[in-house]
Amino acid sequence: MSDVPISMELKEVLSYTGLTSKYIMSLFLLLISLSAILSSVWACPSEESIAPACLCKEFGEGGMLMCKNISSAEDLRPLITAAEPYDMFALTIMQSVLLHIPSALFKNSKYRKIGFLRTQLLSLSESDLAFEGLEDRLEELRATAARYSAHWDWSQLKNHRRLKLIDIDLVEMHALDQEFPPLKSLKLLGISRAEIAVIHPNAFSGLENLEILYLRGNWIAKMSRSMLPNPAKKLATIDLSGNLLNTLPKDMFEGMPNLMEVNLSYNTFTTLRKESFLWPFEHLQALMLTGNELRCDCRMKWIIQTRKPLYFTANCTAPQVLKGLGLSYLTNKVLKFCDSRETLPLNTTMRE
């Protein structure tokens, strides 16, 4: 194999596919000194069969195929075919434009991780099913940094029995207007910075083993309990930071016995209603509300005597005299005007 520069782009792909930073550094040093060995014929196809579009590297889990500047599904087909005899564990398609991935493209492949990096992919498949042949292999599906609209039909993943992670970031989707198929293996679902404004009323209700849900950095103004599994016995983390929420339904957290962390930072909450927030205050280990325009008035008095999560971040932004005060420091003295109907004095102390 001719010399191939070990670039920052390769390091980015390694990180993108979920390898730890310590492992990345070890691999990076190994690549510098043993690049010829890493392209071993036992894990990778010959360079001639995949160049110039693709590069293959061998790691402990098998071969990683990285392809870029692919302009059509037909251009991709011979590259995937060339790698079929080998033990490939990951495929990353970079800086490409594809209308779809042919449904039968992976019939004879063994990929466990597939990612799209700075790639426009309008749909997952041209048929009812996506990634046929990988139903009992594919574990991770990622897409990052595609500044184009994508219209993915999630039902095309319905036959995948080992898919544990779906992570979408910086891909314009605008809406999640259908239910996800009941993927029993799915543990992490992230759809972040995707300009999501509309969510189907039952979008994630069939994901009974979901543990982590990231919907940060979207345009979501409304959430309902019906969107999530009920019960959601394994759900531990919900991240809705950076959206447009100003309220939550009173039953939002019902049936979530193992929920530990909720991030609602940088939304548009101005108050925290007791009927919606009492349960998370008393049961969560972490509750983040930084960056909301919270008005510390009599509606917040219930918080004073309520148990707080071990990690709790939220600050008053009004009235002016309380601006910056953490909600953990609200006291009867600070809010004494609620009982006496007095006007909040200008010299009210910000600490007990």
From TrEMBL:
Pfam families referenced in this protein's UniProt entry, alphabetically: LRR_8 (PF13855)
Signal recorded as keyword: yes
Similarity field: Belongs to the G-protein coupled receptor 2 family. Adhesion G-protein coupled receptor (ADGR) subfamily.
KW Cell membrane (keyword) present: no
GO biological process: cell surface receptor signaling pathway
Single GO cellular component term: plasma membrane
Keywords: Coiled coil, Leucine-rich repeat, Receptor, Repeat, Signal
Parts forming coiled coils: 124-151
UniProt signal peptide: 1-43
Superkingdom to which the source organism belongs: Eukaryota
Protein name: G-protein coupled receptor GRL101
